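Backbones bend. We report:
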Amino acid sequence: MSTDLKSVAEEANERLAGATPQEVLAWARETFGDELVVTASMADGALPHLAAEAAPGVDVLFLDTGYHFAETIGTRDAVASMLPINLINGTPLQTVAEQDAEYGEKLYERRPDQCCALRKVEPLNRHLSHYKAWVTGIRREEAPTRANTPVVEYDEKRDMVKLNPIAPWTQDDLDAYITDNGVLVNLLQYDGYPSIGCEPCTQRVAPGEDPRSGRWSGTGKVECGLHT
């Protein structure tokens, strides 16, 4: 464990608890420089947009699992072309075909945790190893498992500082930022997909349902493992 990074995270969380996302990101860029990376799922371009304003040229990591909706890939490409960011397309060690050959087809149906570990968690860990701090778009209201998310925390598993600058935001806050700044939104958001993951494991959600209820529906799984 890095005592220095742990103390940096604890002190920053106390100092930045009421800060705006822009202030949190500006502090992160000043503190970590090029050793800062932003992760983005491309459900929308809000986090990359915030990061580009606070830290132009910042690395933005997208985990390309091989199972994404075409709309998500399109959002990724559009965000990368419109914002001053350095997009990193993180891929698994195996293609989908190679994974199918080794583990059998549709591993996501039989062992979704293993599929996520291979196609999301391993690539994330491999790419994060080059940095000291990473930024997520987690919001507290998204799920009970995220309700106590701090703005800045120490990621003990990876020995990094983890920043969640929009953790306090409600859906209304996010929507207002998107509208006010003309931020790109994944078209699936307008088609009943408030939470977007890999295509085989994401279903439409009825109005009024938990926004994440369409993820791994019927499996009892609620997180992909990136934040647990």
Summary: The mean pLDDT is 92.
